[in-house]
Design a protein that fits this description.
Blueprint (H helix, E strand, L loop, with lengths): L2 E4 L7 H13 L7 E7 L7 H12 L5 E7 L8 H8 L6 E5 L8 E7 L1 H7 L8 E6 L1 H4 L2 E7 L2 E2 L3 E2 L13 H14 L1 H4 L7 H10 L5 E9 L6 E7 L1 H15 L1 E4 L3 E7 L7 H4 L1 H4 L5 E11 L12 H4 L4 H5 L2 H4 L4 H11 L2 E4 L3 E4 L2 E6 L3 H6 L3 E2 L13 E3 L6 E4 L1
Parallel strand pairs: 2-3, 2-7, 3-4, 7-10, 12-20, 13-14, 13-19, 14-17, 17-18
Antiparallel strand pairs: 1-11, 5-6, 8-9, 10-11, 15-16
């Protein structure tokens, strides 16, 4: 049974949140169990110190062991100092670990989704066996408890729930596969889509192979503040669905007409373009054909420390890769997916070349030759007028989705 408190119009107080966490966990069979708690990294707004404190009160001395696993996907690992700030604490009896997606010994296969089933789930877009490889902690504990927010998302529709397993604590191959499936649909088409998208269907099928019991505390966070609008607890599929309904009310803004120029101000929690690109994803739908998105992030000085090949491949629309697949099929599909997500919609043919729908301009701390070499436009951030009356300026970009009515 799924239990929910709050709504799009509410802000939950700390006492209400703590009481909800205590009540839900007291009703579960967790005594003497080994529990893996899966939480987001710092690229998501989430009041984790308060939630972790409530969790510690509910589980300390009750669970046999608690491992807190940071769902990095393929993001960079967090340092000890970053983890202290991110989680609060210390929490005696809790072990905290990064998801070591780059380390084969930290991963294990839990089964295979056969090609025929993949074809069904992907609505015919892809058809090959998918090996479901996850962090070993997922199978070495009796219970997996996901704690994390739900936002509109460029790959899956709305984030959260089982997405904390895949891609959150998965191996790089299945991460690449799921992201490329989303790229085939395109970010602009799938972002903010309610219900079970093809990527969500794949993720749910993968999570269904996990032998441990799965629970989720899903959250709807007020973007930029960490305050909570709503929380839902239960099996991941149902808890996620309840919060996705609230997120659709909370995290989507509608405009009556497209705009020509957007200045997307990216917050410092995104420390490279790999993560900071969310400042483009959430705004692409409102930009007029031939318009421009200026991604303003002077603090970002690299495209991706973990995926440097993106500087060589560059940013291109989906069809650039699909119509030259023999050239690109052996590249990491997750890198190709990220490339298409930040370049946005467009077309490519061997005669006319690439025709992007909008212009993407980086006003960051990344060197101009790197930006232009990656097939994006460059602008000195010092020259950007954040009060430009001719531009649609969006502060704290990356979590709230903007769409046309």
């Amino acid at each position: 049974m799924t239990r929910t408190i709050g709504s799009a119009r509410d802000i939950l107080g700390d006492e209400s949140v703590r009481a909800f966490v205590a009540a839900q966990l007291s009703g579960e069979d967790l005594d003497g169990r080994r529990i893996c708690v899966i939480v987001p990294d710092a690229t998501r707004s989430c009041p984790l110190p308060m939630l972790m404190s409530a969790l510690h009160e509910a589980l300390h001395g009750r669970a046999a062991a608690v491992t807190v696993l940071i769902a990095l996907g393929t993001h960079a690992p967090m340092t000890d100092a970053q983890l202290r700030d991110h989680l609060g604490g210390p929490y005696p009896g809790f072990t905290v670990r990064n998801h070591e997606w780059w380390e084969p010994s930290a991963l294990t296969s839990i089964g295979t989704i056969p090609a025929a089933r993949v074809a069904e789930l992907s609505e015919g877009r892809m058809a090959q066996d998918v090996d479901v490889v996850l962090n070993r902690a997922v199978v070495e504990h009796d219970v997996c408890l996901v704690i994390g927010p739900v936002f509109p998302h460029e790959v899956v529709g709305f984030s959260g729930g089982n997405k904390y397993f895949v891609p959150g604590v998965a191996g790089p191959e299945i991460i690449d596969f799921s992201h490329w499936l989303g790229a085939l649909i395109t970010s602009a088409s799938i972002i903010g889509t309610r219900g079970i998208t093809p990527v969500r269907a794949l993720i749910d099928a993968a999570a269904g192979l996990i032998p441990s019991r799965r629970l989720a505390l899903c959250l709807v966070v007020q973007s930029g503040t960490g305050a909570l609008h709503a929380m839902s607890f239960g099996e991941p599929e149902q808890a996620w669905a309840a919060c996705a309904d609230v997120s659709a009310e909370t995290h989507v803004r509608y405009l009556d007409a497209p705009v020509h120029t957007v200045i997307s101000i990216v917050p410092e929690k995104y420390d490279d373009m790999w993560t900071g690109a969310k400042g483009f994803y959430k705004l692409e739908p409102i930009v007029a054909d031939g318009g421009r998105v200026i991604v303003y992030a002077p603090h970002i000085t690299t495209i991706s420390a973990m995926h440097p090949e993106i500087e060589t491949i560059g940013y291109h629309c989906r069809d650039y890769f699909l119509k030259q697949w023999d050239r690109f099929r052996d590249q990491h599909w997750g890198v190709l997916a990220h490339s298409t997500h930040l370049r946005g919609a467009g077309t490519w043919d061997p005669v006319g070349g690439e025709r992007p729908r909008v212009t993407v301009t980086l006003a960051t701390g990344i060197d101009e030759h790197v930006v232009r070499g990656a097939n994006l436009d460059y602008l000195d951030p010092a020259s950007v007028d954040l009060a430009d009356p001719a531009a649609f300026v969006v502060p704290n970009a990356g979590e709230v989705l903007f769409r046309l009515r």
